[in-house]
Amino acid sequence: MTALLEKSLIKSHPLSDIADKVVSGKRLSADDAIRLYQSDDLATLGALGEYARRAKAGPGRESYVYYIHNMHLNPTNFCAETCRFCSYANPDERSRAYRWSVDKVLTEAHRGAKLGISEIHMVGGLHPSCDLNYYEEVLRRVKTELPHIHMKALTAVEIDYLSRLSKLSFEETLIRLKEAGLDSMPGGGAEIFDDGVRARMKVKKTPASVWLEIHGLAHKVGLKTNATMLTGIGESPEHKVDHMLRLRQQQDLTGGFMCFIPLKCYYEGTDIKDEVTEPSESDLLKDVAISRVLLDNFPHIKAYWIQLGQELAQLALSFGADDLDGTIMEEKITHAAGAKTPLQMAKDQMERLIAEAGYQPVERDTVYNVVRVSSLTPAVVPPLAERSFAAVRP
Ligand code: SF4
User: Fold this and answer.
1) What is the pLDDT of residue 88?
2) Got the DSSP string for 196-223?
3) Is the dihedral of CA 133, 138, 141, 142 positive or negative?
4) Could you tell me the distance, in angstroms and rounded to a whole number, from the CA of residue 81 to the centre of ligand 1?
5) What per-residue confidence (pLDDT) applies to 391?
6) In angstroms, what is the span from residue 86 Cα to ligand 1's centroid?
7) CB 83 within 8 A of CB 89
8) Strands of 323-326's sheet, edge to edge?
């Protein structure tokens, strides 16, 4: 890695001034980030991301890559909104809409608990009968029957909806849910903050300012949260940089984001494929590397294997990601939109993927406490500069 960074620091290199900033811990500007997006020097982008990841990890943890043993629960796939990029808004999907009873959610939670999960990630569509009382009951019962399970649940979009249904403020809604057992919030629903992209995609829900306000309030009441960015919906590099900088600003103010997760749109069941550009694998790796160097106040960057697939997720670890997400029993949202990745991964398989990529697998809890350092030894892999990116779709 040092050799790579030295290469990127050669004064004649077009990114050497940005590399200097990364090495000296100086904050990158919007212009810096856009120049990184304009570069096709994947080896240098990866080296910068890797450098920033190691610096952020702290002594003794430079090679740590985290995963969690968790399950996803989606209590309903009905949504009152009509975002064009989402298969939940598709009439066919609506005709197959389901809404789980509280008992059904608990049955699923117990199934996960028997397999030893430590976290339930619970998100869903906006269903008028899945109101604040419904989620309070779900949370209370999980916490009563399975007190050791961490409930990471309800995106800012769902909090916004529940608060409108119950006519309570965002803060009151968050406090009620926290008292019922909510432990943290996922980062979904951020999409791309730019108003123009959102208008074209008919995103009427939760504008950027409200999404950020709800996360800020969650941090204020003691809930840690994550943040996402959805690509492949007609955004430009400038929109992505703007999105990340708004997150960085919010983190400066309230400090409760744990992890940033770049996501890509899947198009099955949507009508947008012909009017947007699908991100290439090279674009996805750039999102990982650039988010790592730009979001200097985010502790972790996730390579979401369920979307990237296992090989690209492994490569993303060399671009600055330090988290592969979870074992994820039966993910539904990305698969409803056409993802062909597996629905779940066993712990030993997750650890093997991380070790094969040259990193130390570490099982974590939701808030990144170390649960167990794997006994697997990281493989020795060649540095990025010596690897071919021929297999990466440009
Ligand atoms: S993206 Fe979210 S709010 Fe929009 S239709 Fe899908 S589930 Fe509903």
Assistant:
1) 80
2) HHHHHTT--SS-HHHHHHHHHHHHHTT-
3) negative
4) 6
5) 75
6) 6
7) yes
8) 323-326, 64-68, 360-364, 370-373
Mean of pLDDT values over 44-58: 94
List pLDDT tens digits, range 170-191: 999 999 999 999 999 999 999 9
CB 321 within 8 Å of CB 343? no
| Average pLDDT of the residues of the chain | 92
Specify the higher pLDDT residue, 388 or 16: 16
Find out whether 376 and 355 touch, Cβ atoms under 8 Å.
yes
Mutate to test the pocket of ligand 1, among 72, 76, 81 (most ligand atoms within 8 A of CB): 81
Torsion angle, alpha carbons of 20, 23, 27, 32, to 10 = 40
Cβ(233) – ligand 1 distance below 6 Å: no
Longest dimension (CA), the chain: 64
Q: How many other C-beta atoms lie within 10 A of the C-beta of residue 241?
A: 22
Classify domain 65-380 at the CATH superfamily level.
Aldolase class I (3.20.20.70)
d(CA 261, CA 113): 25
Q: pLDDT tens, 10-25?
A: 778 899 999 999 999 9
CA–CA gap between residue 233 and residue 200 (Å, rounded):
9
pLDDT digits (tens, 9 = 90+) for 320-376: 999 999 886 665 555 555 555 555 678 888 999 999 999 999 999 999 999 999 999
Identity of residue 157: V
Which CA distances in Å does 338 have to 228, 229, 234, 270, 280? 19, 19, 19, 10, 16
Q: What is the mean pLDDT of residues 139-157?
A: 98
269 lines ligand 1 (CB under 6 A): no
Domain edges within the chain: 65-380
Instruction: Note the pLDDT tens digit of each residue in 60-69.
Output: 999 999 999 9
Per the structure block, which two tokens stand in for 200?
A: 């074209």
Contact between 194 and 239 under an 8 Å Cβ cutoff? The reply is: yes
Q: Which of 98, 122, 126, 332 to mutate to test the pocket of ligand 1 (most atoms within 8 A of CB)?
A: 126
